[in-house]
Design brief:
- By secondary structure, the chain is an alpha+beta fold.
- It has a domain of about 70 residues: 2-Layer Sandwich (Alpha-Beta Plaits), CATH 3.30.70.1150.
- It has 3 helices and 5 strands, in the order βαββαβαβ.
C-alpha cells in the first residue's frame, strides 16, 4: 500500500493522553490548533481519523503534503501558514476543509 505524508489539523491543544494516541506521528501545538503529521498509508490515515473522532477532537483539515527525499517532515516542509484552516495549496496538495466527524 502506498504511504503518503499527511498533516491533520485539529482545534485546540491536545494533552498527554491524546498525544499518546498519536505516538507514531509528529505533533506541533500552535496557538489555536494542533497539527499531527507524518507518513500514513490509506488504512493508517483512516485509523488516525477514527482516533480523532473517538477523542472528540474537532477536525479542521487533512492535507497531503510533500516531503523532501531523505528528510523527515518538518514545519517548513509542510508549508505551514498562519491560518488555522487549510487553504488551497499548490499543485500536489490535497485539501479537505473544516468538518466535524460524525459521532457514530
Amino acid at each position: 500500500m502506498t504511504t503518503r505524508n499527511y498533516e491533520i489539523r485539529v482545534t485546540g491543544s491536545i494533552g498527554p493522553a491524546a498525544r499518546e494516541a498519536f505516538s507514531g506521528m509528529g505533533v506541533d501545538v500552535e496557538p489555536l490548533s494542533t497539527v499531527l503529521f507524518g507518513p500514513l498509508d490509506k488504512d493508517g490515515l483512516q485509523r488516525t481519523l477514527d482516533r480523532v473522532r473517538a477523542l472528540g477532537l474537532e477536525l479542521l483539515g487533512v492535507r497531503q503534503v510533500p516531503a523532501a527525499p531523505g528528510k523527515s517532515l518538518s514545519r517548513t516542509d509542510r508549508g505551514d501558514s498562519a491560518s488555522p484552516t487549510p487553504t488551497p495549496g499548490p499543485a500536489g496538495h490535497s485539501n479537505v476543509t473544516r468538518s466535524r466527524l460524525p459521532s457514530g
